[in-house]
Amino acid sequence: MAAALAVAREHGVRCDRPLILSSHHNVVVHLAPAPVVARVAGRTRLVRPQSERLAAGVRLGSFLAANGAPVVPPNAELDPGSHRHGGTVVTFWTYVDERATAPPAETAAALRKIHRVAARFDAALPDYDPRAEALDIAALLDARDDELAPLVRSAAERLVLPNSRRQPLHGDAHLGNAVETPDGVLWNDLEEVCTGPVEWVLACLEHRRLVFGELDDEIEQALAAYGDHDADLRTRLAQAVCLFTGAWSALASGADPSLRPRAERRLDYLRYALEM
Fold first, then answer.
1. Which residues, in sequence order, are CB contacts of 64 under 8 Å at separation 6+?
2. Are both 126 and 262 inside the same structural domain?
3. Which domain CATH number covers 77?
4. Same domain? 186 vs 269
5. Do residues 225 and 177 share a domain?
6. What is the DSSP string of 128-170?
7. Residue 153 belongs to a domain with what CATH number?
8. Domain that holds residue 20
9. Partner residues linked to 31 by β-bridges
10. Is it the case that residue 159 has pLDDT exceeding 60?
11. Would the pLDDT of 174 be above 70?
12. Of 177, 227, 166, 180, whose CA–CA distance to 205 is shortest?
């Protein structure tokens, strides 16, 4: 919050009523009454010291918005960043009126539009491969004597990624990252943009159904609406998604023990899959 307000003041943003919209791996603050949202690197700094994906999200988000893709855009009234302050990184985005959770089919159709536009983006983005970050997280878990550390490390070392065509991607396309707005369905949270197969994003979308048995109908509608893709590759990439989500949720559970059961479930799913 302090970093968000300090950088906002430097850029002439008046903020009387800052409101934290979310506080997970990064912190998202509405700088009310200004129509500006600050995204601040939080826990991600432990593994991504330069928080390169926040900056990459601005680059790709600006390109997508300029080319008509359905995304919440970086803020156009000031320099969206990234800006450094006190060892963290801040980026600025446009505040939108979120009226409801977007319908699954419309959400997936919007995601396909994003990927069609993103395919023309030619600047560098981080790779989707979660293994290096998982090993760094395992080291952090070791430092706090967490019993999940060996499981995260073993999974990262054993996981083999399939060869596949790659392109720029949203990176974290679960259904909660799309919202219904006055301008239609928009995708938000471009914090995990990367290059990889589109099936990586669809495996992220399917993750809750596979691991937790949740949102079965909604996810089925979304996958059908997205259209043609390699369903076998999507299924194979479910293991990589479990490594990504399991490692990060294990790290987060140190501060929020309520996340522990879901971290363990993800890693158990992964362990079983790798032993098959």
1. 71, 73, 114, 117, 118, 121
2. yes
3. 3.30.200.20
4. yes
5. yes
6. ---HHHHHHHHHHHHHTT-TTHHHHHHHHHH--PPP---EEE-
7. 3.90.1200.10
8. 2-94
9. 18
10. yes
11. yes
12. 177
Which regions of the chain does DSSP assign to beta strands (E)? 15-23, 26-33, 36-41, 83-85, 88-94, 100-101, 167-169, 178-181, 184-187, 194-196
Element (H, E) at 275: helix 260-275
The answer to whether residues 134 and 189 belong to one domain is: yes
Tell me how many domains the chain contains: 2
pLDDT computed for residue 50 by the predictor: 64
pTM for the model: 0.90
Residues 165 and 268 in one domain: yes
pLDDT, tens only, 87-127: 788 899 999 887 777 889 999 999 999 999 999 999 999 99
Q: Is the peptide bond before 70 cis (omega within 30 degrees of 0)?
A: no
- Select from 177, 144, 127, 170 the least CA-distant residue to 250: 144
The residue with tokens 């992220």 is: 204
Question: pLDDT value at position 9?
Answer: 86
60 in the same domain as 131: no
Residue with tokens 């991504």: 48
